[in-house]
Amino acid sequence: MTENAGTPAETADGTTDGISVDALRRRAFDALTTARERTALLTSCVDEPELTAQHSPLMSPLVWDLAHIGNQEEQWLLRTVGGREAVRPEIDSVYDAFEHPRALRPTLPLLAPREARAYASDIRGRVLDILDSSPLRGGPLLDAGFAFGMIAQHEQQHDETMLITHQLRRGPAALTAPEPPAAEPVDAADLPAEILIPAGQFTMGTSAEPWALDNERPAHHRLVPAFHLDTVPVTNGDYLRFIEDGGYTDERWWAPAGWDQIREHDIAAPLFWRREAGQWTRRRFGTVEPVPADEPVLHVSWYEADAYARWAGRRLPTEEEWEKAARHDPVSGRSRRYPWGDEDPTPERANLGQRHLRPAPAGSYPRGASPLGVRQLIGDVWEWTSSDFLPYPGFVAFPYREYSEVFFGGAHKVLRGGSFAVGDVASRGTFRNWDLPVRRQIFAGFRTARSAGDA
């Protein structure tokens, strides 16, 4: 099934309508280079002991991520796409993410930081030679530069993972970034609390986005009843009212597994929050600061998001509701790549790519709003949905089952929209993230919904 007119469409030669092979090559080069610059920043701002330390059993040592990035690039772009001889086949097992859980990775014979940097740099140089001569067509891995885009997205996803590790590490701040712009031209208080998304069919997923991953495919129609959606994500100020109303001590609001979780671990606020001298503070990348009331709440689990929604008399949106709000244009009837249209993200439209080290205030980025006026659907915070991570009708695993298929089922919940830590290349209206409902270290928040007709 194809998407509505106006979205990029693949042609027989594997390029995208109106985009030359040279333009696709530049796009791939830029995506790979941007990701590598970010990787370098995340691994050069701390010393070697910090790179080799495991800052949390939930995360890998930073040096593991660095060499894993290089190894994935070697396996897919150097060997598979380029047909070149393996450079370091003996380390494939060490950097196999499915063979070794994160908590055990420090026990592996990891490359030292200097060797890991040299290895990743060597592979990148060889890969750029391949990109320079590739026709970017000749099969699904090559068409429109898919494999290069896949690896750029993979590196940006690990960059986000490494940024999570930076948030978990103790010690002084190692990263800096400018503050996000203030909300303009109005703040959240001047916006409607919620927006009605009319009932009707829309096109969900994609068959045309050249670098879309397997779980985003294929495009298909969904009929979604009318519902109301929060105009902006739930803020820290909103969430504080839940805390102060005894939200963490009232079993009524919690799914049974979530209630067990907060009692077992004595959870009473979002991760990294602490109440000191009558004031709520949070630790953010090595700095302790007052919790800003106007920012989207961050570092909450699915269980916490679900409990808040119940307390507020609402619910989390389904995945299809979220995507309809983010992509459907009720005037043209087509699904767009992003809430604002088909153009790539810009700093004026969304808070992405680690340009800032925090979410922007709720109500920011009016130029990134959806046709109906919903804001900040892309960037700032990942948004939990009520949906389990499941395949779309007609799903085909590509290029390997372990990217998506092995995670399908009721154990993982879907997150949408991306956060300030997500690279532009790994952010679009169809992009699907997933995680366990207990996860709190990720850059996740939420917004709530209610069905039309509900009080």
UniProtKB/TrEMBL annotation:
<keyword id="KW-0408">Iron</keyword>
<dbReference type="InterPro" id="IPR017806">
    <property type="entry name" value="EgtB"/>
</dbReference>
<feature type="domain" description="DinB-like">
    <location>
        <begin position="31"/>
        <end position="162"/>
    </location>
</feature>
<comment type="function">
    <text>Catalyzes the oxidative sulfurization of hercynine (N-alpha,N-alpha,N-alpha-trimethyl-L-histidine) into hercynyl-gamma-L-glutamyl-L-cysteine sulfoxide, a step in the biosynthesis pathway of ergothioneine.</text>
</comment>
<dbReference type="InterPro" id="IPR024775">
    <property type="entry name" value="DinB-like"/>
</dbReference>
<dbReference type="InterPro" id="IPR051043">
    <property type="entry name" value="Sulfatase_Mod_Factor_Kinase"/>
</dbReference>
<feature type="region of interest" description="Disordered">
    <location>
        <begin position="324"/>
        <end position="365"/>
    </location>
</feature>
<comment type="pathway">
    <text>Amino-acid biosynthesis; ergothioneine biosynthesis.</text>
</comment>
<dbReference type="InterPro" id="IPR032890">
    <property type="entry name" value="EgtB_Actinobacteria"/>
</dbReference>
<dbReference type="InterPro" id="IPR042095">
    <property type="entry name" value="SUMF_sf"/>
</dbReference>
<dbReference type="InterPro" id="IPR005532">
    <property type="entry name" value="SUMF_dom"/>
</dbReference>
<feature type="binding site">
    <location>
        <position position="439"/>
    </location>
    <ligand>
        <name>gamma-L-glutamyl-L-cysteine</name>
    </ligand>
</feature>
<feature type="domain" description="Sulfatase-modifying factor enzyme-like">
    <location>
        <begin position="191"/>
        <end position="450"/>
    </location>
</feature>
<feature type="binding site">
    <location>
        <position position="68"/>
    </location>
    <ligand>
        <name>Fe cation</name>
    </ligand>
</feature>
<comment type="similarity">
    <text>Belongs to the EgtB family.</text>
</comment>
<dbReference type="Pfam" id="PF12867">
    <property type="entry name" value="DinB_2"/>
</dbReference>
<keyword id="KW-0503">Monooxygenase</keyword>
<feature type="binding site">
    <location>
        <position position="435"/>
    </location>
    <ligand>
        <name>gamma-L-glutamyl-L-cysteine</name>
    </ligand>
</feature>
<feature type="binding site">
    <location>
        <position position="158"/>
    </location>
    <ligand>
        <name>Fe cation</name>
    </ligand>
</feature>
<keyword id="KW-0479">Metal-binding</keyword>
<protein>
    <recommendedName>
        <fullName>Hercynine oxygenase</fullName>
        <ecNumber>1.14.99.50</ecNumber>
    </recommendedName>
</protein>
<dbReference type="Pfam" id="PF03781">
    <property type="entry name" value="FGE-sulfatase"/>
</dbReference>
<dbReference type="InterPro" id="IPR034660">
    <property type="entry name" value="DinB/YfiT-like"/>
</dbReference>
<feature type="binding site">
    <location>
        <begin position="102"/>
        <end position="105"/>
    </location>
    <ligand>
        <name>gamma-L-glutamyl-L-cysteine</name>
    </ligand>
</feature>
<dbReference type="InterPro" id="IPR016187">
    <property type="entry name" value="CTDL_fold"/>
</dbReference>
<keyword id="KW-0560">Oxidoreductase</keyword>
<feature type="binding site">
    <location>
        <position position="154"/>
    </location>
    <ligand>
        <name>Fe cation</name>
    </ligand>
</feature>
